[in-house]
Design goal:
single chain; 167 residues; mainly alpha; Cytochrome Bc1 Complex, Chain D, domain 2
Length: 167
């Protein structure tokens, strides 16, 4: 047997051995890979939702709409560079944020986000609403979202670096 044939034979045996060794290690299908999950979705507090609906109506609906529909073209800044009030229903992005960030925005206003090139007319309600009122508004907003949006928001709340008071 020539040297070239011996090298080819050794290479083939090594490859066959490698295939046999790897055959026992199967790749886990994507469906069975554990995914991060939040604790079970909490039940909304009916009294908080009612209080939140009243506080929302009295303080938020003028800009964000009676049904949370927001202002037209809310994704596009106006001529003054200020973004219109976004919707709080499922068509908006409120449900993308955790409770802590939502609390901060309501309490300290849109400017508290410190986002470059973002101008908001969202006032700070910290001197007008107490912590319970703000938390009730957040609870009310959650009551308007479909379950999938609530699940997403609940997971965002679990990972929020800004926990809301009482959490």
């Amino acid at each position: 047997m020539s040297l070239v044939n011996r090298i080819c034979l050794v290479a083939a045996l090594l490859m066959a051995g490698l295939l046999v060794a790897c055959a026992g290690n199967s790749v886990q299908p994507a469906a069975s890979i554990p995914r991060p999950s939040a604790p079970p979705l909490p039940t909304l507090d009916a009294q908080q939702v009612l209080l939140g609906a009243r506080v929302y109506r009295d303080n938020c609906a003028a800009c964000h709409g009676a049904d949370g529909e927001g202002q037209p073209d809310w994704k596009v800044p106006g001529p003054d560079g200020v973004y219109p009030a976004p919707p709080h229903d499922a068509s908006g992005h409120t449900w993308h944020h955790g409770d802590g960030l939502l609390y901060q925005i309501i309490n300290e206003g849109g400017a508290s986000l410190n986002v470059p090139d973002f101008k908001s007319n969202m006032p700070a309600f910290g001197s007008t609403l107490n912590d319970s009122d703000i938390q009730a508004v957040i609870e009310y907003l959650k009551s308007t979202w479909p379950e999938q949006e609530r699940q997403t928001q609940w997971l965002a709340s679990q990972n929020d670096r800004l926990p809301a008071p009482g959490q």
